TrEMBL record:
The keyword Heme does not apply. One of its GO terms (cellular component) is cytoplasm. It holds the Pfam family DAO. It comes from the Bacteria. GO terms for molecular function: oxidoreductase activity. This is Oxidoreductase. The keyword Nucleotide-binding does not apply. Residues 5-301 form the FAD dependent oxidoreductase domain. Coiled coil: none annotated. InterPro entries: FAD-dep_OxRdtase, FAD/NAD-bd_sf.
Length: 309
């Protein structure tokens, strides 16, 4: 099998890069192991560059993503792939006088928060990562892109290989998230767990203390724990922390019905988008801002490939 570009990893970043390449007439094969714990399938999908504390070039990259998403989602919807999203804003609730001063929290709260002294609204919103990935894959394949379920074992110049075969390609993009270490990339897994509840949600991402809420499929997404290593699933420790946080901090969720849990590995390390070997490129280390930074990352990868200026 041959292609112009092989993209390894079909999370939001890999799927978006593959879609943008296919739009420009590039022959692309997208490969994904579909392993449990992929960050995209559990991510909150927050578009919150200011509450996340981004600055300098990272803030510019985040703002680029925030600016890009409305047009991208409209494009996908026109192709028959609607994605849940909102750009109503993001909020930080101040839980102390120190936080109120630091955040200049003079705005009204968008949602009841126990102990809050005010809030600060920022530009931002959220997009449903799992639905975004599905939309990108559907649009990519409609353009003639090829998607393969395969656990890639190694890459070298011009070649990607796995147990059942290999693929020849002019260039390789590694968008492998927390699994970057297997390709010699400096990234490690940080497991995040989140709780899904029935009930009324805030209008957009709301940060309060060590966690946050946002809307998700007519209910509430409550996030998130942050734990080192490859431990799988949501355990009692994580579930208890999430339930206590939701119950104690948000009055509207005191009796909320349980909907489910999600978990995934955030790729933690120094953000890197560039060439690691001749014609082998990588995009790793996005932490919990992968969705926000995906448009900037895809644009940079296309520039490195010489497809876009």
């Amino acid at each position: 099998m041959k292609a112009e570009v092989a993209v390894v990893g079909a999370g939001v970043i890999g799927a978006l890069a593959a879609y943008e390449l296919a739009k420009r007439g590039v022959e692309v094969v997208l490969l994904d192991a579909e392993k449990p714990g992929a960050a995209t399938l559990a991510s909150a999908g927050m578009l919150a560059p200011y509450p996340e504390g981004l600055s300098g070039e990272l803030l510019e990259a985040g703002l680029f993503g925030l600016k890009t998403y409305p047009g991208l989602l409209a494009e996908l919807k026109e192709k028959g792939h609607p994605v849940e999203a909102s750009f109503a804003g993001t909020w930080v609730a101040a839980l102390s006088l120190r936080e109120k001063e630091a955040w200049e929290a003079q705005d009204p709260l968008p949602y009841p928060v126990r102990g809050a002294l005010g809030a600060r609204r920022f530009p931002g919103g959220f997009v449903h990562p799992k639905r975004l990935r599905e939309a990108l894959l559907g649009a990519f394949q409609a353009l003639g892109g090829v998607y393969l379920r395969a656990e890639v074992e190694g890459v070298e110049r011009g070649r990607v290989y796995w147990g059942e075969g290999d693929l020849r390609a002019r260039a390789v993009l590694l968008c492998v998230g927390a699994w970057g270490g297997r390709f010699g990339l400096k990234v490690r897994p940080l497991k995040g767990e989140a709780l899904l509840l029935e009930g009324e949600a805030p209008p957009g991402p709301l940060f309060a203390g060590e966690g946050y809420l946002l809307p998700r499929e007519g209910g509430v997404y409550v996030g998130a724990t942050s734990r080192e290593g490859w431990g799988e699933g949501v355990d009692l420790f994580g579930l208890r922390w999430l339930a206590d946080y939701a119950h104690e901090r948000f009055p509207l969720l005191e009796g909320a019905a349980f909907r489910g849990v999600v978990w995934g590995y955030r790729p933690v390390g120094e953000l890197f988008v560039g060439e690691v070997e001749e014609e082998i490129f990588a995009a790793v280390g996005h932490g919990r801002n992968g969705v926000l930074l995906a448009p900037w990352t895809a644009k940079r990868l296309l520039t490195l490939l010489g497809v876009e200026e």
